[in-house]
Amino acid sequence: MAYKVPDLPYPYDALEPHISEETMRLHHDKHHQAYVDKANSALAGSEWEDVRPKEILTRLAELPGDLRETVRNNAGGHYNHCMFWRSMSPDGGGQPEGKLSRAIKDTFDSFARFKETLTEAGLSVFGSGWAWLVFDGKRIFIVTTTNQDNPVSDGLTPLLGLDVWEHAYYLTYENRRPDYIEAFFNVIDWDVVAERFAEAPRPDVSDILDRTVSISGAQKRYGDISYDDARTQAAELKALTGWGPMAKVGTVARAWTALSVTLERHGAATVTDLEPSEVAQMAEELWIVPPSRSMV
Ligand SMILES: [Fe+2]
Predict the structure, then answer these.
(1) Chain centroid offset of residue 177 CA
(2) Chain mean pLDDT for the chain
(3) In sequence order, what are the beta bridge partners of 142?
């Protein structure tokens, strides 16, 4: 099953004035097509012919040596551009909402700081490459790649890729890469990026969520703990602070307060609604599961 350049999900001129029709025609019809043609010709007749590009990019080391670089560049070019077209929309721009917005604030403090960081990353790529917003199952951050490499090869989930090859902007912006990046922010489809974030692999914490905790003498499942439960538990433990046999009680009381703050900040009804990485980290701090690292 040979690769094929997908149709754009909008007309060629839909991203004007930010990305010109001329740029889109050249970028999509010529550059992307060239990656597809070269990938198909390299893979034809090999046992990799029917393997999806994403899987190939996670198994590059297994490719025969004479195919590896060609496939890496061209299956990479195909996969990256498929993502890129879907990351933009004439109705794009603005800022993400919901869980993705909170994840951006957790890492970058603000959307403005995130924008600055992605811009700096895009400008830092020497020659041809990409700047990416990625997720590792715990947090989001920014990486850059050269040529047509994709972060999926490093076990990361790419959420948004910014193409900083000159072919992506030169017709309109000439050598002014900063102006192109500024324009790109006006067409980012944050709904698509948020979908990728929602669907990204995360650690399985179901066994942690099923642990039971005693709240005011009643057994409750950790995953069902609400803001009020966390506040109650924090207040009861604070009342015990200083009682010798419970040396760690102050630390654990603070962890319950922190849990209530996190639930409130994320608009989460219960612990189950939090990011799995937070569920696991908080469970350690609350001593619901044994800490994986030293408490010293
Ligand atoms: Fe490109």
Answers:
(1) 24
(2) 94
(3) 133
